[in-house]
Amino acid sequence: MDQLQIILLAIVQGLTEFLPISSSGHLLLPKELLGWPDQGLAFDVAVHVGSLAAVLLYFRKDVINLLQAWLGNVAGKAASDDSRLAWCVIIATLPAGLIGLLADSFIEQHLRGIAVVASTTILFGLLLGWADKTGSQSKTLLSISWRLALIIGFAQALALIPGTSRSGITITAALLLGFSRESSARFSFLLSIPLIVAAGGLKTLQLASAPSAVPWGELITGAVISGITAYLCIYYFLKLIDRIGMMPFVYYRLVLGVGLLAILWL
Question: Staple partner for 69: which of 83, 89, 199, 261, CB 3.0–4.6 Å?
Fold first, then answer.
């Protein structure tokens, strides 16, 4: 890959991992519009490492507190708000993990086309807008229970369908359950940590089973750019979300979905 491809694809990964706008749709655009080849498994691993570093750095205090509280609870200490939230993150991660293992080959074979990505980008964008307009937005993460976490977890499993957007569908579910925009986004970002670890680990195992020359310069550049972009994305998203709401992302998704359909029909 040349430098422009590395920079653009790393920025796309850093933004779309956390914004509710569908990474699948964006990763199709360079290939379809510019004829760029697939970036390859090693680069996928690198940009996922960058995204993971960003979310861990931003939520480092939360992650440490949650981990300590969870370990303490497992060891027999009384449950706390942090330990309950940690259990909820675990519970909400399970549906996507299990369904992903069972349905991965079907999704890979049947749901990777532009028509699917365009349709889900539009459909779940509209659902996000409806949730933002109708949700009560009164709950904080102190109100979360394992039942609510499980519902958000099953919603997250829908993101296995390309174009859905993992952050988009989890924020949508949380809004529909009455959580505030900030709480919905924070829970979505915390949920991303185990899934990025799992996805990155799986890709790393696949890469290790098919060793080849490693372009370290490209990988390091991609990881750094993805990490910086993702960190800034998380920071500004949480800072602005209560002010701007979800509608800018809804409109953007509609434009993206229609654009992908235009590519398909032309």
Answer: 83
Residue 11: other Cβ atoms inside 10 A: 19
Per-residue pLDDT of the chain (266 residues; tens, 9 = 90+): 788 889 998 999 899 989 999 887 787 777 766 777 767 767 888 888 899 999 999 999 999 999 999 999 999 999 999 999 999 999 999 999 899 888 877 877 777 788 888 999 999 999 999 999 998 899 999 999 999 999 999 999 999 898 999 999 999 999 999 999 999 999 999 999 998 888 777 777 776 776 566 677 888 999 999 999 999 999 999 999 999 999 999 999 999 999 989 988 87
CA distances (Å), origin 195, targets 76, 132, 159, 190: 27, 25, 11, 10
Q: In the chain, how many domains are there?
A: 1
Contacts of 180 (CB under 8 A, 6+ apart): 137, 138, 139, 140, 242
Side chain identity, residue 189? F
Q: Which domain holds residue 236?
A: 3-265
Type of residue at 174: A
Distance, in Å, from the CA atom of 250 to the CA atom of 248, rounded to the nearest integer, reads: 5
**Cα gap 201→8, rounded to integer Å:** 24
Task: Count CB atoms within 10 A of the CB of residue 199.
Answer: 17
Rounded CA-CA distance 247/130 in Å is 9
If you compute the radius of gyration of the chain from its CA atoms, what whole number of angstroms results? 18
Which distant-in-sequence residues (6+ apart) come within 8 Å of 247 by Cβ?
A: 129, 132
Question: What number of residues does the chain have?
Answer: 266
